[in-house]
Design goal:
Distance between the termini: 33 Å
Shape: globular
Strand content: 5-15%
Helix content: 25-40%
Order of helices and strands: EEHEHEHEHH
Largest sheet: 5 strands, mixed
Radius of gyration: 14 Å
Number of helices: 5
Structural class: alpha/beta
Amino acid sequence: MASFRPITAEFAVSPQLALDDLAAARAQGFELVINNRPDGEAPDQPDGSVIGAAARAQGLDYVHIPVIGRPTAEQAHDVVEAAHGRRTLAFCRSGTRSAMTWAMGEAASGRMSLEEVTRAAAGAGYDLGPALGRR
């Protein structure tokens, strides 16, 4: 089972989800799953369409916003807009890309400062300071 790591009360990240993780996500009150992993990144990962169908079967909304390398401003915006007002679980290979994409989007939106997003991510075990230009 994947480890869900809360960054805020409304947003958590996880390494790659297995299909049975989606029932656990629903049981923990998540409403939306965001897949930040491009299809075919690793031979053992389920295809996004399979995860999406399984998420919807659990009553979860699903969005696929694949990120390769550093997230773009558009991807960061799309993640925070999709998640806004909903309890959200985002995943990628390790959770770091999802945390970074969320942090960039929140800081750009003005809802949280760069310091606040860095601190929130650190609380979940992700050191985004260097990548966000903070030490």
